C-alpha cells in the first residue's frame, strides 16, 4: 500500500478534479503489475495496474489507495473489471467519499466472494484524496494557505526594501506548487502593492491556475499585470453587486477579466460564497497567496485545510506596516507540523482542522 501511495502522488496536478489513486497487484509477495491514475479522463489506477501484469491476475491481491468506483463516468466501473479479472482479495486504503460510491463497491466485491480489507495505511491514503473529499463533503475547494515570514513573524517588508522574504529555493517551490493547483487567490491589497503575475514560471506546467482576486471595492487597476494578461490566463475578480455593474467592471471585462458579484459580509465579501463559486467551476485545490489581511480572514473563517509557511533567517521590519500589523494570527504551534530545509529557509507544513485555527 505504501508503494501504491507513492505511485498515486505522480498524478498530482494532472488528475484533478479526480483524486490521486495508486494501485499494485501482487501474488505471494511478488508484484505482478502497478499503476496510477495519470490524467483526468484517462483509465483509473486499477485498470492501469491490471493491464501492466504480464500474467493472469486470477487469485491475486490488488492493493488500491481508494475504493474502486462502481458507477459509469469518464470510464467504466472499476469494480466490475476487478471481478472479471478474478482477483481474490482487494486491500483498500480509504472508502470513497463520493455518494455515488461510498462503500457500494466494497459490498459488491464481498457479495461475489472477494475478500476486502479496508483502512490499510489509512492516513496516507486519506491525505491523497483530501482535496477530492473536501469538494465532496464541504462543497468547496481544498484551501492551501501559503506565506513567508521572518524570524519576527512579519510578512510585509517596509517600503523601499525588496519584497522577497524567502530565498530563491523557496520561491522555486512555490512555482511548482502553483503548477498543480486550480486557482491562486489573493486580496486587492496584494495586487495594489506587489502587482504580481500569479503564474507558475520555470517549471513544466501541469495546470494553468485561474487567478482569483477578492476585491470588495474593485480597486484592481486596469493596467495591472493580471489584467494585462487576462486574455491568456483566466482571471476572476470577486466584488460587490454594486461594483460588478460599474464602469470599471465593464473596462475589466473588456480586457478579459471576469467580474463576479458575491454577497457582502461585515464590511467585506462572503468568503463562503467565493468558495462555493469556485467549487462550481470545478476547482479542487486553491492556493491562497495573499497578504496578512486575506490570510487572516481565511483562518478566522476556519476554511484553511493546509498551511505552508516559509520562515527566513532574518528580521523583516517594524510591526506597524499594513493589514493586521503585517502578521498572520495562527493558533497552531511550530512543533505540530512537518518541517523541511528550503535553501536557507525552513518550510513548515500543516494539515489543519478547525481546532488548529483559533
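-> sequence recovered:
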Amino acid at each position: 500500500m505504501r508503494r501504491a501511495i507513492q505511485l498515486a502522488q505522480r498524478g498530482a496536478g494532472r488528475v484533478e478534479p479526480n483524486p490521486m489513486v495508486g494501485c499494485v497487484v501482487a501474488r505471494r509477495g511478488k508484484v505482478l503489475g502497478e499503476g496510477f491514475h495519470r490524467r483526468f479522463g484517462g483509465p483509473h489506477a486499477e485498470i492501469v495496474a491490471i493491464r501492466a501484469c504480464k500474467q493472469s491476475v486470477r487469485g491475486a491481491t490488488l492493493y488500491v489507495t481508494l475504493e474502486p468506483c462502481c458507477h459509469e463516468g469518464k470510464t467504466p466501473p472499476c469494480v466490475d473489471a476487478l471481478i472479471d479479472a478474478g482477483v481474490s482479495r482487494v486491500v483498500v486504503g480509504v472508502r470513497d467519499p463520493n455518494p455515488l460510491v461510498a462503500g457500494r463497491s466494497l459490498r459488491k466485491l464481498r457479495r461475489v466472494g472477494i475478500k476486502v480489507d479496508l483502512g490499510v495505511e489509512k492516513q496516507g491514503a486519506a491525505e491523497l484524496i483530501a482535496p477530492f473529499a473536501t469538494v465532496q463533503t464541504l462543497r468547496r475547494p481544498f484551501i492551501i494557505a501559503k506565506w513567508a515570514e521572518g524570524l519576527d513573524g512579519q510578512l510585509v517588508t517596509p517600503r523601499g526594501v525588496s519584497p522577497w522574504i524567502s530565498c530563491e529555493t523557496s520561491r522555486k517551490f512555490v512555482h511548482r506548487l502553483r503548477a498543480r493547483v486550480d486557482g491562486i487567490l489573493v486580496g486587492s491589497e496584494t495586487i495594489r502593492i506587489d502587482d504580481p503575475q500569479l503564474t507558475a514560471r520555470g517549471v513544466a506546467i501541469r495546470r494553468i491556475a485561474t487567478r482569483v482576486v477578492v476585491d470588495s471595492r474593485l480597486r484592481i487597476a486596469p493596467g495591472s499585470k493580471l489584467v494585462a494578461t487576462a486574455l491568456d490566463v483566466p482571471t476572476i475578480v470577486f466584488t460587490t453587486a454594486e461594483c460588478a455593474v460599474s464602469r470599471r467592471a465593464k473596462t475589466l471585462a473588456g480586457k478579459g477579466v471576469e467580474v463576479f458579484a458575491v454577497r457582502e459580509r461585515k464590511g467585506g465579501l462572503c468568503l463562503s460564497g467565493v468558495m462555493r463559486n469556485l467549487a462550481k467551476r470545478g476547482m479542487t485545490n486553491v492556493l491562497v497567496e495573499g497578504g496578512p489581511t486575506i490570510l487572516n480572514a481565511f483562518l478566522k473563517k476556519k476554511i484553511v485545510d493546509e498551511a505552508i509557511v516559509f520562515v527566513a533567517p532574518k528580521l523583516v521590519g517594524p510591526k506597524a506596516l499594513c493589514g493586521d500589523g503585517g502578521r498572520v494570527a495562527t493558533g497552531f504551534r511550530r512543533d505540530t507540523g512537518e518541517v523541511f530545509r528550503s535553501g536557507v529557509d525552513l518550510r513548515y507544513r500543516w494539515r489543519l482542522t478547525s481546532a488548529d485555527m483559533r
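The CA atoms of residues 216 and 268 lie 6 Å apart.
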